[in-house]
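stage 2 :: seqdesign
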């Protein structure tokens, strides 16, 4: 017996229509929540796997993991080239869940203090993406005048929860740069890596000498001079106008940055410690960037031939290019002592400004 308004009587039991309707609604809600739950977890799982593959297993990816977009890697580009954005074609590939973003962190200097090593070490972190080269957006007018969209197109593709990092050491010494960076992003995180100033000056001289030896006759003349001849005048005074010496007077430039950015937005990275104990410095940077600690001693090994730490991940080992870590010329200890005494006052001014003693030798 059936009553379409009141319900059914089956097997001697009365079953109200309202009761059956509630069962249907409950079943539909259960299916809906289950679908949403599974869908969200599939998306989360997929994103996580994509990040792991892109960051740690580039060789495991294939063309199917990327999509074509206008003006964005030729189909025959390697995955590693795509990941590092080292492709020049107007038709490029990018990972389907990523896009180019303006950098949230910048390595602004200092030249010959280990900016490249720092960037490559940070790139070990799965939440870091790096620009392929030095973009020189903020320090070169011809680039800056092209606008932020041009700059953004120079950045790598990244996930929404990753931090994009760019480094151009000349930012540190260019007066217009701090204000220009603030105009892009007032909350950007700044990394400033410093080394003992005399060591940095000698390293700078070594690179300049290497470059000058292969260029014009006029620069070859300079290349033939020793570091002592260039850094110390004939009368025995330190040549503060010699560029490698000038750049090592850090406090004059740091003041310009602190006029624009608060101190807690700039992390001073100890370049000497980064060479001797990279993990301790990287841990500080992870915290500064708000990243979960991921980089461990297992990511580094000491290369006896090169004399410094190299990186490893998932069984793959990698050192910086052979142009990095050039052997320094022998410099007269008397000249080194004179230069360190010259830098003492300058270093103390730096310590006072940044509120941190770098512990550099005084003589």
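stage 2 :: out
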């Amino acid at each position: 017996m059936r009553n379409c308004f009141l319900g059914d009587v089956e097997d001697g039991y009365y079953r109200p229509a309202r009761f059956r309707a509630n069962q249907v609604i409950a079943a539909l809600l259960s299916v809906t929540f289950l679908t949403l739950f599974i869908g969200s977890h599939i998306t989360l799982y997929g994103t996580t796997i994509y990040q792991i593959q892109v960051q740690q297993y580039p060789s495991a990816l294939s063309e199917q993991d990327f999509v074509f977009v206008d003006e964005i890697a030729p189909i025959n580009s390697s995955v590693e080239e795509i990941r590092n954005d080292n492709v020049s074609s107007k038709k490029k590939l990018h990972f389907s869940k990523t896009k180019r973003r303006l950098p949230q962190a910048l390595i602004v200097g200092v030249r010959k203090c280990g900016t490249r090593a720092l960037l490559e070490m940070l790139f070990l972190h799965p939440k870091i993406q790096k620009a392929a080269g030095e973009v020189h957006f903020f320090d070169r007018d011809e680039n800056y005048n092209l606008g932020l969209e041009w700059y953004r197109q120079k950045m790598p593709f990244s996930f929404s929860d990753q931090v994009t990092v760019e480094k151009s050491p000349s930012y540190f010494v260019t007066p217009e740069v701090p204000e220009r960076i603030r105009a892009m992003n007032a909350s950007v995180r700044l990394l400033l890596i410093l080394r003992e100033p005399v060591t940095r000056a000698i390293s700078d001289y070594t690179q300049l000498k290497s470059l000058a030896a292969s260029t014009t006759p006029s620069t070859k003349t300079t290349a033939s001079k020793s570091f002592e001849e260039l850094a110390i005048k004939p009368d025995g005074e330190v040549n503060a106008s010699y560029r490698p010496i000038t750049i090592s007077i850090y406090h004059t430039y740091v003041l310009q940055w602190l006029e624009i950015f608060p101190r807690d937005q700039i992390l001073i990275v100890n370049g000497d410690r980064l060479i001797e104990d990279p993990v301790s410095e990287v841990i500080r940077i992870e915290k500064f960037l708000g990243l979960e600690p991921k980089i461990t001693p297992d990511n580094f090994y000491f290369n006896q031939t090169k004399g410094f730490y190299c990186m490893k991940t998932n069984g793959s080992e990698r050192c910086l290019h052979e142009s990095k870590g050039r052997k320094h010329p022998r410099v007269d200890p008397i000249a080194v002592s004179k230069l360190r005494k010259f830098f003492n006052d300058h270093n103390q001014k730096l310590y006072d400004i940044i509120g941190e003693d770098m512990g550099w030798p005084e003589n």
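stage 3 :: structure notes
- The longest helix spans residues 17-56.
- The CA atoms of residues 344 and 362 lie 6 Å apart.
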